[in-house]
């Protein structure tokens, strides 16, 4: 599938797939959305001192980058596992400007995240260990994962990729969630919320990032 680099409202870039008419992040600000939905409402909200994060869709690595920067800043030992079926190309990585928008340290972390080998747990920095799994979520056997504390559910939209948002997947995610684990996503659809609830999660609607009225956060009681 062909992808194009586009600029978003806050100056950060993202990828756009013309064939799907879908982008990797909000056009109202890629960095702003990641920071708000995943960092603020997910990673910072969760109380685990040494969290295990599971991300659905590594994509550009933006969520991973922001989490790595925060883990180092707060000295919060973090294990980050991310599933991805279609890794992006080196030429695309070079054109994304996330590191330079944040700091020199972030630029180095961004390269390290992308240079790390697929399917091998890698120490990116003292407080951030990464395991990128090149796999298809819909075929994935969740038994090989540890219990997790925060899930970044960052698949393409439910209308574009409904198979990623079905109840069976939320049930499997619930099964590997620790007590008080959080699942966050940019989607606020009522049907998605009901699927989370039927899987055992308690869900809440939160105010969304710029351009989106609401988002969802689910918690395992
Ligand atoms: C909205 S983008 C993710 C954005 C990413 N979190 C980031 O920060 O750039 C959705 C991601 O899910 C990936 N994806 C699509 N189908 C998948 C599947 N069946 N299994 C795993 N990943 C998939 C896409 O390739 C894409 O990288």
Automatic annotation (TrEMBL):
Spans annotated as Disordered: 202-221
Pfam families documented for this protein: Methyltransf_30 (PF05430)
InterPro entries: MnmC-like_methylTransf, SAM-dependent_MTases_sf, tRNA_MNMC2
Domain MnmC-like methyltransferase, chain residue ranges per copy: 146-220
Molecular function GO terms recorded: oxidoreductase activity, acting on the CH-NH group of donors; tRNA (5-methylaminomethyl-2-thiouridylate)(34)-methyltransferase activity
PANTHER family: MNMC-LIKE METHYLTRANSFERASE DOMAIN-CONTAINING PROTEIN (PTHR39963:SF1), SLL0983 PROTEIN (PTHR39963)
Name recorded for this polypeptide: MnmC-like methyltransferase domain-containing protein
Taxon lineage: Bacteria, Pseudomonadati, Bacteroidota, Bacteroidia, Marinilabiliales
């Amino acid at each position: 599938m062909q992808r194009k680099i586009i600029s978003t409202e806050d100056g950060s870039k993202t990828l756009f797939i013309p064939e799907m008419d879908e982008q990797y992040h909000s056009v109202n600000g890629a960095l702003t959305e990641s920071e708000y939905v995943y960092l603020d409402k997910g990673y910072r909200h969760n109380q685990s001192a040494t969290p295990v994060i599971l991300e659905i869709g590594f994509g550009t690595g933006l969520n991973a980058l922001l989490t790595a920067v925060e883990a180092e800043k707060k000295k919060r030992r973090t294990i980050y596992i991310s599933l991805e079926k279609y890794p992006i190309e080196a030429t695309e990585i070079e054109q994304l400007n996330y590191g330079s928008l944040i700091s020199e340290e972030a630029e180095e972390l961004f390269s390290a995240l992308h240079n790390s080998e697929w399917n091998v747990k890698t120490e990116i920095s003292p407080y951030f260990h990464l395991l990128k799994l090149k796999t298809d979520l819909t075929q994935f056997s969740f038994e090989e994962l540890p219990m997790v504390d925060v899930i970044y559910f960052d698949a393409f939209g439910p209308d574009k990729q409904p198979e990623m948002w079905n109840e069976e997947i939320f049930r499997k995610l619930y099964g590997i969630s620790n007590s008080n684990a959080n699942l966050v996503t940019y989607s606020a659809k009522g049907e998605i919320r009901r699927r989370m609830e039927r899987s055992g999660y308690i869900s809440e609607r939160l105010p969304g990032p710029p351009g989106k009225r609401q988002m969802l956060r689910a918690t395992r009681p």
